[in-house]
Amino acid sequence: MKIKICGITDVETGVKAAEYGADAIGFVFAESKRKVAETTAKAIIDRLPQEVFKVGVFVNESGEEIERIAAFVGLTHIQLHGEETAEMCESLTLPVIKAINFQNNERLAELNTYPSEFLLLDGPKGKYRGGNGTSFDWKQVDTNVLKEKKLILAGGLNPDNVESAIKMINPYMVDVSSGVETDGIKDLNKIKKFISQAKSSRQEEVR
What we know:
Layout: E1 2-5, H1 11-20, E2 24-28, H2 38-45, E3 53-58, H3 63-73, E4 77-80, H4 86-91, E5 96-101, H5 105-110, E6 118-122, E7 150-153, H6 162-169, E8 173-176, E9 181-182, E10 185-186, H7 188-206
Helix pairs in contact: 1-2, 1-7, 6-7
C-alpha cells in the first residue's frame, strides 16, 4: 500500500515521513493553513529520496505558474484540486493527480475520460478544498466505474481508521494530512503509526 503524507512544511517532518516509509510527500501551494513557501518546499525536496513522489497541490492555478513552481522546487507530480479543464491537464508536463470531493458514482464514471493517471477521492469541501479532515461514506464508492485510474483515497483518514478504509476501497494509495496532526501541527508519532497501519493492512491481504 502506497502512502502520501500531505501538507508538509518543514524539512525534519518531510525527511522523517520518508524514512518511516511514505511513498509520496505533498506540498500545498494553494490557499491553506498548510501553504508552504517555494524556497521551503525546495529545501525539503532536496533532502528526499529520489523514488519518493514530490506532489504539488494547486487550486485553479495557471498552467504557466504550476510549471514554474514545479521546476523550481523539483516536483514530480501535480495535484489539481479545483475546476481545472481536461485541456489544462493535458498541457502539463508532469503526471497529474485529479482530486475531487466525492459526490456520487455517476460523477466518478464521468472522470474516466479525464486525462490524468491518478484520481484522488476527498471528503466534503470545507474552508479549503482539501485537508479538512472530513471523511465520507466509503461504502458508497463503486470502484468498478474507475476502470483505468489509480485511485487515491483521502478525507478523514487517521491511524485508527486507515486499515478499514483500505480493506473497503482497496486504493492505489492513501493520503493523509490533518489525521496525523496534533493541534494543527504534523505529529511524527502519528505519521509513523499511520504508515505502519496502512502498510500492515496490505501485508495481511498478501498472506
